[in-house]
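ugh ok so i messed up the first submission bc i forgot one of the chains. this is the corrected input, ALL of the components this time, i swear. 274 residues overall. if the numbers dont match what u have on ur side tell me asap before i send this to the collaborators (the ones from the other lab, u know who)
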Amino acid sequence: MTENALPLWLEQIKWTDDGLVPAIAQDYQTGELLMMAWMNAESLSLSVQENRAIYWSRSRKSLWRKGESSGNVQQLHEIRLDCDNDVIVLKVKQLGNVACHTGRRSCFYKKLDNTGNGYTWTDVEPVLKDPKEMYQQ
Amino acid sequence: MTENALPLWLEQIKWTDDGLVPAIAQDYQTGELLMMAWMNAESLSLSVQENRAIYWSRSRKSLWRKGESSGNVQQLHEIRLDCDNDVIVLKVKQLGNVACHTGRRSCFYKKLDNTGNGYTWTDVEPVLKDPKEMYQQ
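and heres the new structure output, hopefully the right one now
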C-alpha cells in the first residue's frame, strides 16, 4: 500500500514520521483500558476489513494479528480518532479475557505507590493465565 | 533534571529517544477515555508532586499544565504503567467536565462509520462548552 493509494479516512490520520499511529484498546462494555500498541495504514486497514485488532510490531517490523499465538483476539466494536487525528481508540471485545502477554487482563497492571520512602511501581492485577500455556496454542 | 538524577521509578520507564512517554488520561470513575498526550520525566515528576496532569507539549516544547488556560484541570487519582514500561495511564477527575480543546468531554469524538460508500470519521460527541469562552479565563 503506497501513501498515494490511501483512502481519505486513512489519509486524514496524522501518521508519525515512521508511518505509525498509537492505538489504545479499551473494553467496549466496561471501558477498561487493555493496552496500547502501534498501527500503520496497512494494519489499520486490515483491522477494519477483518474486524479484529491488527497492530504493527515495531520490534519485529511486521504485522501483529493480536491473538494469533495466544488466541486472545480483540474483536472490533468501534474505532475512534482524536481531535488532533493522531491517536486511535479501539473499542474491543477481548476474547480469552486476557490482553497482556503476562497473562493479565490489562497491560496496565503496575500502579505507582508512595511507600513513604519514595515511589515504586507495584503489580496490582492478578495473573489469570499462565503465559507458558497461552503461547502453546 | 538530568538523566542521572532520576529516581528509580522514573528511570524504570522506557522513554522514547526524545525522552517522552505517552500518557493516556481516563476518568477515574467511569473509565471514559479523555485524551492522550506526552510526558517527559520532569512533567511526570511534577504531575505527582502537584497531583494534577502536567504534560509536555511537543509543539510548544514546554510544560503544559493541563487546564492552566481553560480551568479544565485533571486531578490525579492513580497512575499506572504498562508491562513494557512505555505507556502511562492517568486515572483522573476531569474538572470542568471537558478534556478537549474543542469543548467536548473527550478528545476521541470522531467515530469511524461505514457509509456504504466507504469509511468516514463522524463527530459523535456534543460540544459542551464554547472554546472561545473556555480560553478567555
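quick check: Chain A touches chain B through 38 residues (CB under 8 Å). that seems consistent at least. The first strand of chain A starts at residue 20 and ends at 27.
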